[in-house]
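Single-chain item
Fold in token form
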Amino acid sequence: MRLDVSNYFDTISIRKLLNNLDQYVMPSIKKRHHFDPFTIQEITQFFQFVSRGQQGIPQSDNDVVSGYIGYLYLIFGELIIDDEIAKYNDLVETYSIIRYVDDIFISVAFEEGISEHRKAAFADRLVAQVAHTLYQKLGLNMNLKTKLFWLNDDDERDELLNEIRQVSPEYHFSGDDDETPENKANAILNQLNQLKGKPVDPLREYSKTLNEEILREVFDDRVDQLFNMDYFRSELQYIFSDFNFDHVKVLPFELLILILKNEDVAIQFRDYLLGLEYLTAVDTNLILRFLCQTEFTDPELIWKLRQNDEMHDIMNVFLDADLYSSNPGYFNLSYEQVLSLLSIPDLLIQTKNRILCERREDYSPALNHLLNEFQSVCFYLDTNHPKQLKQYTSLELVKFLDKCHVPSEVRNAIERLFNRRNSNTVSHPGEEYGSVWGVDSDEYHNYRNQVGQCLKLIVPSSKL
């Protein structure tokens, strides 16, 4: 059975993952790694922050963290499958669960004497029960790619092996290694010759004429090394002469590796890219892949991308080598001012918590985080501060602002901010404040603007 999860990374629940870890991991291990309710809350808030409160986890190319979380989350899915199969001990002799991220394969061997009808009924029930429990406990939905293969049927077995190759193209099946690297390299050359002789398919449906698995053998290190040899490089040059490079859009990564094995062919392909008149999204992707493989050292191709409406602003940043912002967005402080604050303990945590509350439009706790954040900055900048932050009172902070020649209007607003915290619903007001009330959006943003004006005045550009 092959099970596949629909929109896997968009439906992962960090809270469920952490709760499962809390439930299944041994207490001694949790204690050693400081895995406690505070850690769970911090990690949950972080992912709420980076995903802007949406379900799921972010993804990008070569994203090790998201890939590992994706692997880890479905470990609990494997436990669910184990529990479901254990209900059928009278039918199942042995079984294995093989998984690559969200692609799950379950191999089952039945007890002797089980009829084909009972086997099929078991498979249907198991898939249905696993799908139900995965949704119930992990919030995951199975998609239509869920399939059943009978391994005593040669056609279905071959179909399964082909699907496994698509999931893990670098995997070699028993028997595959009987083929020498030379044979594999020659098979690649044969595929290129076949591709060269075909007209360009505008829909790029080459499945009947192109064996993608053969071309993917270029990822085999032994095959890759062969293409560095003079014989194979000259064969590539012969094949790619008068080659229609529109074919490269079929398998750009594999074909680019082969193109770049021969300098003359690489020059031909570069000329092809420069000759593209109207860049489609596919063309842009092709140029970017070529630039990635050549370390972005081609100014003409970079300039060509700059002419593209979608890539214009991105390439301007690249060409200007201005990969940092003069205004990073922290209270309108300059880059140099923000740089001077990086060593302040816990400032990032306070800022993160404040922004998270702002995005939830939860302004009462946001105001407390705002004041704690501002107090940390002043404590750091004030050379006459006491030894500990908790001893740094509002009176000492206001004296510091006065020494920095902060205008009285702004300074008074900061004093009111301290008083407002004490009458905030999430604080612990003293008896002299009587009643408490929540903070609304207008009030919060007024205080936030005053803090921003004050920081602009007191934060230097050189304190490191």
